[in-house]
């Protein structure tokens, strides 16, 4: 890592000095006003690992393709069935047989919780 201090009359000139000397990838890590202008501290990191190309993770890529394939098949199956049959849709996404999926919703008389500001 290369760290360097730059002195200039104003911030614009100091930033130009940083870009000219360290390049556009430099990071400003400190600044302060001094008598007669500003002081900038800038750093440039030369990590080789950051410059090396990434090696794709084949396991993750394979899992992603399988998941995308399952999503496409599920969407195709949903489109071919009637949307009015909620139990079939529940079966498709839960992986349970229709008899195991609970489609009954109990009505409640409780009012929903109120936000804290109204309590």
Report on the architecture of this protein.
- Keywords: Cell projection, Cilium, Flagellum.
- This is Flagellar biosynthesis regulator FlhF.
- The structure is a single chain.
- The chain is of the alpha+beta class.
- The chain has two domains: 2-47; 56-99.
- 40% of the residues lie in helices and 19% in strands.
- The chain contains four helices and three strands; from the N terminus they run E-H-E-E-H-H-H.
- The chain has helices spanning 11-22, 48-51, 58-80, 86-94; strands spanning 2-8, 27-34, 37-44.
- Strands 1-3-2 form a three-stranded antiparallel β-sheet, covered by helices on one side.
- A hairpin with a 2-residue loop joins strand 2 (27-34) and strand 3 (37-44).
- The longest helix is centred in the middle third of the chain and has 23 residues, at 58-80.
- The chain is elongated and about 75 Å long.
- The two termini are 55 Å apart.
- The mean pLDDT is 77.
């Amino acid at each position: 890592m290369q760290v360097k201090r730059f002195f200039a009359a104003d911030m614009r000139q100091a930033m130009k000095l940083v870009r000219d000397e360290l390049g556009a990838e430099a990071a400003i890590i400190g600044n302060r006003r001094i008598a007669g202008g500003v002081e900038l501290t800038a750093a440039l990191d030369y990590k080789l690992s950051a410059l090396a190309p990434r090696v794709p993770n084949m396991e993750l890529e394979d899992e992603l393709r399988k998941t995308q394939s399952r999503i496409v098949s599920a969407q195709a199956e949903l489109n071919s069935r009637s949307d009015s049959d909620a139990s079939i849709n529940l079966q498709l996404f839960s992986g349970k047989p229709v008899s195991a999926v609970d489609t009954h919703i109990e009505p409640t008389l409780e009012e929903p919780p109120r936000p804290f500001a109204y309590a």
